Amino acid sequence: MPTTRARFHESATLIPVAQHLEAVLAAVRGSARPAGVVEQVRLADAAGRTLATDVDAVLASPPFDNAAMDGFAVRWADVASASPAEPATLTVVGDHAAGSADPASARPLGAGEAARIMTGAQVPAGADTVVPVERTDRGEDADGPGGVHRVRVFSAPDRGRHIRRAGEDLRVGDPLLEAGTLLGPRQVAGAATAGHASLPVVRMPRVSVVATGSELTEPGETLAPGGIPDSNSLLLAGLVREAGCAVVEIVRMPDDADVLRAWISEREPCDAIVFTGGVSIGAYDVVRRVLGELGTVDFVRVAMQPGSPQAFGFLADGSAVFGLPGNPVAAAAAFEVFVRPALLAMQGRREVQRRRVRAGLVTGWDSPRGRLQLMPVSFVAAQDADGAGPEPLVRPATRGGAASHLSGGLAGADGFAIVPEAVERVEPGGLVDVLVLP
Amino acid sequence: MPTTRARFHESATLIPVAQHLEAVLAAVRGSARPAGVVEQVRLADAAGRTLATDVDAVLASPPFDNAAMDGFAVRWADVASASPAEPATLTVVGDHAAGSADPASARPLGAGEAARIMTGAQVPAGADTVVPVERTDRGEDADGPGGVHRVRVFSAPDRGRHIRRAGEDLRVGDPLLEAGTLLGPRQVAGAATAGHASLPVVRMPRVSVVATGSELTEPGETLAPGGIPDSNSLLLAGLVREAGCAVVEIVRMPDDADVLRAWISEREPCDAIVFTGGVSIGAYDVVRRVLGELGTVDFVRVAMQPGSPQAFGFLADGSAVFGLPGNPVAAAAAFEVFVRPALLAMQGRREVQRRRVRAGLVTGWDSPRGRLQLMPVSFVAAQDADGAGPEPLVRPATRGGAASHLSGGLAGADGFAIVPEAVERVEPGGLVDVLVLP
């Protein structure tokens, strides 16, 4: 297989992680799919989707002046000098609950008049202040002559107090949400407040997951000699869904080039395919061989540990292709570093990187010179000398550290510590940046 | 309404946040539902669920000694002295790919013999070391007499190298996952590796969301005078789902005690109900009035801002009841502080608090003395003087800060800054703990 060997030698140079990521993101963003495809979805269906365009407020918030407390709407001049010894007595001419108003009280408040008002109710015209109920006799026991209700006010708030003004939070036309925002409960609720019933979102990327390897066995089934449970299908399908994509197919196949070629020609249409296994240089690495034949998928070695062998490119129909190592820890690390950012970029997401925190190290470990190391780590109980807040501390999550090749240890990882290329060892008490997993 | 007033005066004392949370968690944990109800689910359906019991490995990982690199399995003694000038020449008696083995090579490796082996393939008996292919002539061009393949080894790795030992990552019986763990892709993949096909999980809590207020209008519909869009139903239903629960009903109802009573008697069975609106002391606060009649729901004021008025208790059928203020920022804050931890505790979740980070302040603001303040904040671009990593900085997310009453500004919040009770003002350049939202 001279071709395979030539390809290996060509790609023996390690590509810096940042350079490969930049190339992947540029390629994915250059492809207009699916970020260019916009769907209008009801607010109830918008959570988890990515906003396609900037969205402004089409309704002011609040839409009208309303009471911030339960009490009485008044003309401030009528109560300015009120005191417990000399309360101001006002005629109660209305009763305003949120969402409904006494029809008889629709007229503006006159001098010496008050309207009972509940939090959120529209402040009647003429009133400029709300007196909280605690500053009054509640107006319940003060029937005046002829059955007229009166309220006694014992002290005045500042003029204009306890009224939420129309547009105080949002005016019509105010920017609300930026294109590329991941929509969650708070964003959807904000859109409702701002007058929207639906939002424009990017079509969800459709992604297929293909795990190759004749050793891969359905989890829980009896293993043939040399067989292992297929954990990568579950891992990658789950990570793809967490990245806001729909999983189209989950395929497990042996190391058989004909099987892979047949699947490629018969598969469901999709926007991206995540392969795992078969991307390094072994004679049975069929993903490398079959996709390498196409000439549109590059096989490279990236300066990271684990996860160095990587494939990226496009199939003829425009589907993006990611090829990850079969080692589950390497696959999980490479997914975080390259695939997740690319899947988010395909959605036009503004932020494609996970949040990072700086954390203290409980133990040290070695890191390969010239490679960015991603070490699965767990947060340990926060130590907090001054009681003022958490100081994150981490330790390796897997028994074998970054060299660990199996997914058992990944189960306890809260994140990946990122050790720069130039660092050959991190020491207890030092600091490290941690890419935080959800 | 003397009863309502008496209740208000009884509860005028502010309860510390930690005390109220402790009471809520104790009550919810004391109720065995639904944490006591265990379901066995397939791994493919387990993501997002909470593990019900501790789970150990039932399969070693790896299940057998296997090659960590592509190369040749050898007896180390045969290659120990190999050099480029004097390579060791071995007879290739087998070809081992992952998941399949040459049946002819099932016999143990003898002296002077080697087996071609691919990453992940089972190491044949007799072999104690794998020589990476790069240290050999690949064995492809070295046909010996009678068609026998030979491989020349140019240098020996250390004895035992490049073999992953059976059980190196997990031994049978090793603890894998603890009860109360939220299952995600990495945990599910780990369970597959450890020999499981399914996992025991806690039944998802069934939760109904009820927004009360005659002013509440379907988002996007024309507002009647005094009407506002109902954003809280969307907010709370989304937060409930994010907390791992199934939403049973989403109900919007006017401030009408009879409507609420009817709903309570006719509702779908559920584990918890989250009410919003109607919990403070206004005459139209029907949730307070109707649930107060039951005598099993307490209405309290908690020492926090926003979100002071709170209700918590149980209905006769054991459904937990949470009553939150109608102000969306207050509802969101109170959900984070009380409801989400309670819903996670109902699932037996080990960790019921969101992750917190300490962040620097870009601007200062006032905080009410004696109340824990939850200020919606946004992260701003990290400033990083030494280039070594991110230092989180925050600013208030809403125009009105914590006093903001509407959900428009919530849309931009990345978290809630938590200002302790004793603090009356935070200043730019200071530090604050931030409860990080997803």
TrEMBL record, chains A, B:
Cofactor: Mg(2+)
CDD domains hit by this protein: MoeA
Pathway linked to the protein: Cofactor biosynthesis; molybdopterin biosynthesis
Any one GO molecular-function label of the UniProt entry: metal ion binding
One Pfam family per UniProt: MoeA_N
Catalytic activity line of the entry: adenylyl-molybdopterin + molybdate = Mo-molybdopterin + AMP + H(+)
An example Gene Ontology CC term for this record: cytosol
Alphabetically ordered keywords of this record: Magnesium, Metal-binding, Molybdenum, Molybdenum cofactor biosynthesis, Transferase
GO annotation, biological process: Mo-molybdopterin cofactor biosynthetic process
Domain MoaB/Mog: 208-345
Enzyme class: transferase
InterPro entries for this protein: MoaB/Mog-like_dom_sf, MoaB/Mog_dom, MoeA-like, MoeA_C_domain_IV, MoeA_C_domain_IV_sf, MoeA_linker/N, MoeA_linker/N_sf
EC number(s) per entry: 2.10.1.1
Family matches, as SMART domains: MoCF_biosynth
Similarity section: Belongs to the MoeA family.
Function as written in the Swiss-Prot or TrEMBL entry: Catalyzes the insertion of molybdate into adenylated molybdopterin with the concomitant release of AMP.
Protein name (Swiss-Prot/TrEMBL): Molybdopterin molybdenumtransferase
